[in-house]
Amino acid sequence: MSVRVSFVVVSHSDALARGVCELAAQMAPDVHFEAAGGTDDGRIGTSYDRVEAALEASLAAVDGDGSGVIVLTDLGSATMTVESVIDMSDEPERVRFVDTCLVEGAVASSVRAQLGEDLHQVADVAAALAPRLDDASAQEAPSPAAPGPGGGAASASSMWAEGDAVVADPVGLHARPAAAFVRLAGSFDAEITVNGADGGSVLDLMALGITQGQSVHIEANGADATAAVAALTDMLESATKQPSESKETT
User: Fold this and answer.
1) Which stretches within 186-239 are classed as H helix?
2) Phi, psi of 42 (to 5 degrees)
3) Phi–psi pair at 7, nearest 5 degrees
4) Which stretches make up the HPr domain (predicted)?
5) Which residues neighbour 90 within 8 Å (Cβ) at sequence distance 6 or greater?
6) Which of 117, 151, 184, 189 could form a disulfide with 223 if both were Cys (CB 3.0 to 4.6 A apart)?
7) Of 77, 85, 66, the residue nearest 4 (C-alpha)
8) pTM (2 decimals)?
9) Nearest of 37, 54, 60, 187 to residue 114 by alpha carbon
């Protein structure tokens, strides 16, 4: 499925905007990102022209039904600039400004865009993170789910399956490995959890704090449940260290 959603990251700092795009692109390599940070002369601030150019480039990068651009910002005055640019856009219906956590919103929603979800679906993922700004409890890791019938061995019914896996990746289930897990999980017709956390959310998986050598419990419910558990278990247990991740911390 082709990617239908691109992103514009607007910040008062050019370095911050580019950094967020760089980080999110590690999780969603096929998604198009445009950074619009700083003023035209390199100072801290925002630029209408930069935001407009970034939005036009992002709109041109995606097409088809449900396609469009998610715009994320850092502070209030950047939001005002973005709203002005969207108002003057030729295709405002294909643009969604989402007032949410900048870094978390970019990472979590871009992974969903990588899966081919449409503009409204991706925007909903980003918007769902907004309460985390004021709710510290939302950052707590979910409690591990109790093993299903049969204990650690993989078991399944026609719509439900479970299994355990020992995480082999040196960085654990963090950042890129978590994004890879979400992308693979999204290819199956099943709802998936890992130790009770949503297997479709990069942030929820990272919040578990899973390190190399730890065992995780995977459950899936849906038409592809058995295949999903088998594939995800194999991925976690056969992961090998990537050179670019050798210095990544958990």
Assistant:
1) 202-207, 225-238
2) 85, 10
3) -135, 145
4) 160-246
5) none
6) 189
7) 66
8) 0.67
9) 187
Q: Which residues contact 31 (CB under 8 A, 6 or more apart)?
A: 3, 5, 6, 7, 24, 25, 110, 113, 114
CA distances from 189 to 112, 176, 185, 200 (A): 15, 22, 9, 12
* Percent helix, strand and coil across the chain, each to the nearest 5: 45, 15, 40
Active site annotation includes 217: no
Residue with tokens 């130790």, as numbered in its chain = 195
Please report, in tens digits, the pLDDT of each residue of the chain (250 residues total).
589 999 999 999 999 999 999 999 999 999 999 999 999 999 999 999 999 999 999 999 999 999 999 999 998 788 999 999 999 999 999 999 999 999 999 999 999 999 999 999 999 999 988 754 445 444 444 444 444 444 444 444 458 899 999 999 888 888 788 888 988 988 898 999 999 989 888 888 888 888 889 999 999 999 899 999 999 999 999 864 443 443 344 3
